[in-house]
UniProtKB/TrEMBL annotation:
CDD domains per UniProt: fer2 (cd00207)
GO MF: 2 iron, 2 sulfur cluster binding; FAD binding; iron ion binding; xanthine dehydrogenase activity
Keyword Endoplasmic reticulum (UniProt): no
Record NCBIfam families: xanthine_xdhA
Pfam families: CO_deh_flav_C, FAD_binding_5, Fer2, Fer2_2
Record protein name field: Xanthine dehydrogenase small subunit
InterPro entries hit by this protein: 2Fe-2S-bd (IPR002888), 2Fe-2S-bd_dom_sf (IPR036884), 2Fe-2S_ferredoxin-like_sf (IPR036010), 2Fe-2S_ferredoxin-type (IPR001041), 2Fe2S_fd_BS (IPR006058), Ald_Oxase/xanthine_DH-like (IPR016208), Beta-grasp_dom_sf (IPR012675), CO_DH_flav_C (IPR005107)
Length: 482
């Protein structure tokens, strides 16, 4: 059984289909049709809901953290121990919520189909903001698309909603909600079981290892932003899933003198501060990693584990020399991330083995990363590049150069590195290294970019890296090329 709060209503579910998304649960099982299906792939934001969960802040105080999610990519099992808020829950005692009122007064709605999603993103923004902030508003709304109004009135609504925000029913009931969430906090493995399909929700790494050993055919579910597409887009059935999002051990970020250790189930939003503090380019890339809704769900371990050749984080992690800790039963092994990827969607992971954490080295001063995509926000890379050189007295003593989108896997450019290593760090060396990239990669052409464009972009990004290190005042990190 799993338990969660539907606003303030306790829901206990056991026999639901584990493949059921929160979107369809709301619409088909509860008759709450305010949440819309626009794309069923996490791109349009019409299905946005907000999930609240217990969180301890830096001062040790317990709070409810509210985050926007795409309900079309969220399986109901991931709600275990949390609070689900949909657009129907905002109106209170006959009065519109302040974010709804702001949309009305700023004329932020036209046909209305996308409006509930915008309202829920604005609600999460209001809960996480102390004052109007244009940058945060753009970030909060980047995952919501509108084909009617344009975005100016919606951004005006965001400013109004976050300016002198009034207390709402969620604020007044916060202590009560915290107590109710504590009362339903999971204490043992939860389960949804419809007879022919099941999803298990362990609470510890040891329990996960045991369950995965018992069900090696199970699909591991973290954020679900990739896995859920198999259900929503390809109409496949997932007979057994194991949800790892309630395992606190796999959501920790620990900082040591020489490294960060990031649990594989840590959301990309939660990774941001630690990675940005150490590597601003990594932080800039995370800002452009899909939408805020996706970053609130998607995990660093999931972005690695799905072995996509265009995943944004692996090239950066490979260039930094990151490692992963793989767990199977009581056995753990540490593997260089670059050795995890073998071929297209093929990895070195053994049966019943899972990524427990990612180890990211600290102290790489010349690390830079760049992403080329058709849109600045919420788009997949055509090429993603990361560079990590050590230069001593004008000579390159070591080089790690990695790319995504250039091969069947995220991959180091070994020929390029060989040209760089031991050479003088100047434009002539860079041109030789650019020529070597043609030996490292034979990229494909697809709807994102032609093979010629990809290769030329990769070469130009190396040139850009060289220019920026020579003249750091013109640095423009993680730039999109249209």
């Amino acid at each position: 059984m799993i338990q969660f709060l539907l606003n303030q209503e306790l829901r206990s579910e056991h026999a639901l289909d584990p493949n059921l998304t929160v979107l369809n649960y709301l619409r088909e099982h509860l008759g709450k049709s305010g949440t819309k299906e626009g794309c069923a792939s996490g791109d349009c934001g019409a299905c946005t809901v907000v999930v609240g969960e217990l969180h301890t802040d830096d001062q040790g105080a317990e709070q409810i953290r509210y985050r926007s999610l795409n309900s079309c990519l969220t399986f109901v099992s991931s709600l275990h121990g949390k609070q689900l808020i949909s657009v129907e829950d905002l109106k209170h005692q006959g009065q519109l919520h302040s974010v709804q009122q702001a949309m009305v007064e700023c004329h932020g709605s036209q046909c209305g189909f996308c409006t509930p999603g915008f309202v829920m993103s604005l609600f999460a923004l209001q809960k996480n903001s102390d004052a109007p902030d244009s940058q945060k508003a753009h970030e909060a709304l980047a995952g919501n698309l509108c084909r009617c109004t344009g975005y100016r009135p919606i951004l005006a609504a965001a400013e109004q909603a976050c300016c002198n925000k009034p207390q709402d029913q969620f604020d007044s009931r916060q202590a009560e909600t915290i107590a109710r969430l504590k009362a339903i906090a999971p204490t043992q493995t939860g389960e949804l079981n419809s007879g022919d399909k099941r999803c298990l929700v362990p609470l510890t790494v040891a329990d996960l290892a045991d369950l995965y050993d018992a069900y090696p055919q199970a699909r591991l579910l973290a954020g679900g932003t990739d896995l859920a597409l198999e259900v929503t887009q390809f109409h496949r059935t997932l007979p057994v899933m194991i949800y790892v999002g309630n395992i606190e051990e796999m959501k920790r970020i620990e900082s040591f003198d020489d490294r960060l250790e990031i649990g594989a189930a840590t959301s990309l939003s939660d990774c941001y501060t630690a990675l940005n503090n150490e590597y601003p380019d990594f932080g800039e890339l995370l800002h452009r990693f899909a939408s805020l809704q996706i970053r609130n769900q998607g995990t660093l371990g999931g972005n690695i584990g799905n072995a996509s050749p265009i995943g944004d984080s692996p090239p950066l992690l490979i260039a930094l020399g990151a490692q992963i800790v793989l767990c199977k039963g009581n056995t753990r092994r540490t593997l260089a991330l670059e050795d995890y990827f073998i071929d297209y969607r093929v990895t070195a992971r053994q049966d019943s083995e899972f990524i427990e954490k990612i180890i990211v080295p600290k102290g790489v001063p010349l690390f830079r990363a760049y992403k080329v995509s058709k849109r600045l926000d919420d788009d997949i890379s055509a090429v993603c590049a990361a560079f990590n050189l050590k230069v001593d007295n004008g000579v390159i003593s070591d080089a790690r150069v990695a790319f995504g989108g250039m091969a069947a896997t995220p991959k180091r450019a070994k020929n390029c590195e060989a040209v760089l290593r031991g050479a003088t760090w100047n434009s002539a060396t860079v041109e030789k290294a650019c020529a070597a990239l043609a030996e490292d990669f034979t990229p494909l052409s697809d709807f994102r970019a032609s093979k010629e464009y990809r290769l030329l972009s990769a070469q130009n990004l190396l040139r850009k890296y060289f220019i920026e290190l020579q003249t750091p005042h013109i640095e423009t990190r993680v730039t999109a090329y249209v």
